[in-house]
Amino acid sequence: MVAQNVAFWIFAAFMAAGAIRVVTTDNIVHAALWLVLVLAGGAAQFILLGQEFVAWVQVIVYIGAVIVLFLFGIMLTRAPMEAEEKLNNNLRWPGLAAALLFAGTLAWAFLDQWGSDKIKLTKPVRTKEIGDLVFRGYLVPFEVVGVLLLAALIGAVVMARKD
Amino acid sequence: VLLRAILRTQPKLVYQLSIAAAFVGLVTSGAFVGNEWRIIHRSGIFQTFSGAIAVDGMTVFVQAIVLIATALGVLLALGYLRREGLETPEYLVLLLLSATGMLVMAHANDLVLVFVALEVFSIALYILAAFDRRRAESQEAGLKYFVLGAFSSAIFLYGIALTYGATGSTSLTEIATQLGVVDPKAHTGLLVAGFALLIVGLGFKVSAAPFHMWTPDVYEGSPTPVTAFMASATKVAAFAAFLRIFAGAFAQASDDWRPAIYVLAVLSLLVGTIAAAIQSDVKRMLAYSSIAHAGYILIGLQVANAGSKRNELPGTAASLFYLLVYALMALGAFGVVQSINHRGETNHAITDYKQLSKRQPLLAALLTLFLLAQAGVPFTGGFIAKLSIFRSAVDAGQYQLAIAGMLAAVIGAFVYLRLVVTMYATGQDDDPDAANEPRIKLDVGSRIALTITASAIIVLGVLPNWFLDIAHQATQLLTR
Amino acid sequence: QHYFILGAILFTIGATGLLLRRNAIVMFMCVELMLNAVNLTFVTFAKALNDSAGQAAVFFTLIVAAAEVAVGLAIIVAIFRRRQGATADDIDLMKG
Lengths: 163, 480, 96
Prior knowledge:
The structure holds 3 protein chains of 3 kinds. By secondary structure, chain A is an all-alpha fold. Chain A contains 6 helices and no strands. The longest helix of chain A is centred in the middle third of the chain and has 25 residues. The termini of chain A are far apart. In chain B, 76% of the residues lie in helices and 1% in strands. By secondary structure, chain C is mainly α. Chain C has a single domain, classed as Helix Hairpins (Orthogonal Bundle). Chains in contact: A-B, A-C, B-C. Chains A and C meet through helix 1, helix 2, helix 3, helix 4 and helix 5 of A and helix 1, helix 2 and helix 3 of C.
């Protein structure tokens, strides 16, 4: 059990650091790369929790497609590669304060609900289980997601068309 | 599922073909909704797809409103697109796709499904808002709407995650039973946090007061028929989800979420009416008034089915009826605004509406009708809607809420009348060229749409009880 | 249970990032960050209640997020074709 905890803390540290860097770096490309770190940490956490399916989907979909899209976005908009001017607008410190407050309330809500009982890390969940759940229990959202992708497709085409 | 297949079979090749297909789609889905209503009456409510879909009175009522709004949206759009030279079938396809999303959302019984449906119609609307690529405002509106929409969906999703954690399931009926059973434990911080986030998420979508910043900019920026559709249909779908989630699933734990909605209602009323008063641009004024209307509906939600001691009209039925009337009013008002301004969305300022009555008497009369309806003048649907909302609020003992509502209505009336006066003012300086401005020829599409909305509002105003008891039945059949 | 807290912290970082940053793309990245945090919380809840409904939900959120990215970037890029600036300040033609 100890190994898992240690692993968890390492990944958690990576993710937190990555997230903070994403927010604070001036250079956009750096931000994208830090995001990759956060996502990779997330995938590792999923594996730790025994959910290979979600972990690998995350790795492929997110890190593979989403970040690449971001990089495209950055390229296309010819955003300056080197650090830009001061990126954060002036209301920086009140924002920080509000964030801490919000995080505090959420943390309290979690602790209050579950106290300190350790989550028993049972055997990893096999993908078959998720598969049949999706196609039996959640069939309708699956259909609707198809419609969603269609809408996104058309949307992207409409926006990208040379008028 | 067939419903969706029909809606999506729009060929994207020829524009006229897609108009025809759009109407075929609408008619067939309308027929579907019709026989859903008959089935319900005979066999009572049923849930298909293992609980994910709940077909009940409210679903059919909301779906009917969404379909009407979409049909009118399409009609309004035809003229506008021809004039702006954006003759592309994509517009219709996206419009229908967002309608599909709303239809699904109306009868979603599972939080995940609500989220996915919410995403479907918001993505379609992000694109529609940014449709007119030549005008910078339209793109900017699309961007603003997109960023805020993404933000609110993330919050909404986090709310789902929390409620899932607290209650152990995402399907609304199970949540309802779960809440009933394990009361002591369920009322922990997690559930309340879940509620709060859900309210924030939906609040953004419905542009209730504290989360309304995006509404004026996006309504003003995006092309007018899109605004018309957005103002009416999104509110209907979002409120359907609001009602289903809070009145349906979380009824037991209602003492948690009622005060929050109370604050939202009052805030939306105040912000909506006061901001509308100081506006100079008609479209922005209509945007702010839509926030005020969101406030009224929230009142109905706040007293949701609490006020049904005697078989009075419960809050939910009142808000459902209000949704119907509001959708019509919003579509009508924006329709007129759209036909008045010329290419490129230029003159929206109030001053351009001066002496409108001389130039286009018909349009001026129509706009006055819609504005009066929004103000809640008798003989229009608006009056009955506001009356039913206030009556349900009074039933439920929320007197302050009712008073706040009435106050806002009075201020609102002033705002609308101000515009009406400018239109009919026979100011001394009635500049000669105003008279001989070319009579704006109303193309066939928007003429039909405007006549339908106008007549519907008058019918709703004069003999509302038929609609009222449909709304009443709709709430009785709400799946518990 | 410290997973939750991690999820909460990530969510807040994403939210504040979104509010503070001016560059459209970075703001969008923060939204992705928030979605990730939500996924993490979803999975941990699923683990705690040891039924796998959570992962199914995560499965859908992933798809939705991917679709959103595609559309979002399309809009952002479309806007840039007209003007260079990417910061949110100069996109405020309609104030008031």
